[in-house]
Write a structure and sequence with these properties.
The chain is α+β, with helices and mostly antiparallel strands and about 270 residues long. It has 4 helices and 17 strands.
Length: about 270
């Protein structure tokens, strides 16, 4: 599966699109791009961070908000942002009355970390670099998932899809061990809390919060065959947006949805 961009994009489904747009623009301070109409009943509000797009998919009939937190459900539950303006971002959180909690790190650690939540309860891990990365640092987003079976997830991402695994990290507490895989230059990380948790996965329209990851591929037909050869479920598509792209969604063992997109040449 040949990628044309090393950073994945992420898709969120807000229960209150106006509040979420204001949060990512005014509180976190991310640069907003022009919004796009993606068909009847769907407006996509876009923000950029490094080489990533954050896509807020505002449906005409949005899902209701449910309690957030990595310990409450199986699914995509956490977004990590690697940022240069850490202190300024914490100040904006304070100004807007948004709670945040600093995590303890060693004095020689080259970053600082705080946790907060967006309006839909998605946990945000703010990683502030002591030495700013500037424009040269393109990879600035990680996605964290609570899974039903961590070893099953490891087999899927490592053996089935062939992604490179990081060294597991012991987190302690209810989260236990954190596993991570590199998809391009981006990181998917996950942990297992309890297989009995309810699942907030599947179709991105069903639940509010962090819902999808998107990778741009050179050849969607070849990527589709790659997935089919390995028994990976394709849950939607291929679908064509005339003159723009073709896309499909596949799912992992917990029914999290991942999007592959082939962009068409602009002169097509």
């Amino acid at each position: 599966m040949e990628l044309i961009k090393s950073q994945f994009d992420v898709g969120l489904t807000p229960s209150d699109p106006e509040a979420s747009v204001a949060y990512y623009r005014d509180v976190l301070g991310f640069r907003q791009l022009p919004s796009a109409q993606m068909g009847e009943g769907l407006t996509q509000h876009r923000f950029v961070l490094g080489g990533h797009l954050l896509k807020l998919n505002a449906y005409a009939d949005p899902p209701e908000r449910r309690p957030g937190g990595v310990e409450r459900a199986i699914g995509m539950r956490l977004l990590a942002f690697v940022i240069d303006d850490y202190e300024d971002m914490l100040a904006r959180l304070d100004t807007h009355g948004r709670r945040h909690t600093a995590l303890k790190v060693g004095p020689s650690t080259p970053y600082r970390v705080s946790l907060t939540k967006d309006p839909d309860g998605t946990v945000l891990e703010l990683v502030g670099l002591v030495k700013p990365g500037g424009k040269a640092l393109r990879t600035r987003v990680q996605v964290g998932m609570t899974v039903a079976d961590a070893q099953r997830a490891r087999r899927f991402w490592g053996e089935t899809l062939g992604l490179q695994e990081e060294t597991p990290m012991e987190l302690g507490g209810t989260m236990g061990t954190r596993y991570g895989f590199h998809w391009g230059e981006s990181t998917l990380k996950f942990w297992q809390i309890s297989a009995d948790l309810p699942a907030q996965t599947g179709d991105p329209r069903k639940h509010a919060g962090l819902r999808t990851c998107t990778m741009l591929v050179k050849d969607l037909a070849a990527a589709r065959q790659f997935l089919l050869d390995r028994g990976v479920p394709i849950v939607q598509g291929p679908t064509e947006i005339p003159g723009v792209c073709s896309l499909l969604f596949f799912s992992d063992p917990d029914d999290n949805w991942f999007e592959l997109v082939e962009l068409y040449p602009t002169d097509r």
